[in-house]
């Protein structure tokens, strides 16, 4: 199994209740049902006010490297990422477990 | 429950086999047994070569906000974080689940 973690930071001046952001969160929430490769899925807003805290997190898992690539290439994932690219940046880490 | 995710980036010029890094990874691997608040613990090197990939990840969970603070304040966690501060930076996200 491969864990795929993503931490998102909203661009300066973008609020969590921005309609684009709300739509982006909805797009992520729908991914779990839309992408068959996903074996584990959590996505949520950060609740920490530490300066090093990012704003939103995706914690997911897929079977193997091929499944991860299929997830990344899935039209629903690509569409959600394109939405987020309008108002946020992110960093990732993938690891086997 | 609260999920506590941390993504670490090694400082420029620091390698994964640097003795300080190896010791830092060992310190994190020992945390799971050392801190009773931890209900879930994964830590591992990133395997993605995407430019947005960070180097190392911690994926943990604790019961609630008070348990998270006890974890952060635990001497074993503070010591491990101090080790990592010598050679890496990191970002976090915490969320309820």
TrEMBL record, chains A, B:
<feature type="domain" description="Stress-response A/B barrel">
    <location>
        <begin position="2"/>
        <end position="95"/>
    </location>
</feature>
<protein>
    <submittedName>
        <fullName>Dabb family protein</fullName>
    </submittedName>
</protein>
<dbReference type="InterPro" id="IPR013097">
    <property type="entry name" value="Dabb"/>
</dbReference>
<dbReference type="InterPro" id="IPR011008">
    <property type="entry name" value="Dimeric_a/b-barrel"/>
</dbReference>
<dbReference type="Pfam" id="PF07876">
    <property type="entry name" value="Dabb"/>
</dbReference>
